[in-house]
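Appendix B. One record, verbatim.
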Amino acid sequence: MTFAWFKGHGTENDFVLLPDHHGTVHGDLDAAFVAALCDRRRGLGADGVMRVIRSSAAGIDSPAEWFMDYRNADGSISEMCGNGVRVFARHLLDQGLVEGPAFPVATRDGDKLLRVEGDEIAVDMGAWTTGTHTKVSADGRAWEALEVHTGNPHAVAFVDDVADAGTLLQQPGFDEAVYPDGVNIEFVQRVADRHVAMRVHERGSGETRSCGTGACATAIAAARADGATDATYRVDVPGGTLHITVSPDRTVLTGPAVIVAGGTLEWYA
């Protein structure tokens, strides 16, 4: 099997992009194939895969021409990826498939408006909600966590130090009654006023160097704790820095997004 591919990342949250504009190359995008591509020893290595497909070819009813068909590293389908959609946008811009500085991209969490801001790309992540307080656990310790939904489900726990979460090699404990489809779990350390650090364990991918929807969930939880509205938070992740503006009806995520490689791959597996 021979196909085109690209590799990109946003604050080291990395992805394989598969151009399949008319949906004729990868069929239903088999989960085992996605998992093999993402394997860091037996494949290309990535936190997820994004098929670049026209909305019409994907059966998506949207005014946005392009649909981000996103899959987690284990091949499971995900609703949204904040870093991913910015990398997806960078690819569209680099390939001349859209015209800037602003354009929409269709996702399973609805249409997202992307805007080029210098060397960075901002995405309007849309509405968010919070729910109950739950418990999460890792490395033999437990913390209270806030349920936050930013396109994906999140549990945000404030810790004294992000190192308290341990290795995060295993899935942290969480309340399956609240999160029956799994959850992304953020461990958040206060650094300064409107400045936090974060580690994240993503469902289907494990610990990643960054998570855009998780950074948004973290900023929402911090703003709620601070009693702040229309506030911008700096979120430091292992792979860099993101800025999230939180308002009562939406969040905007801003950060770098780059394409680092691409070509044609002859896949033998």
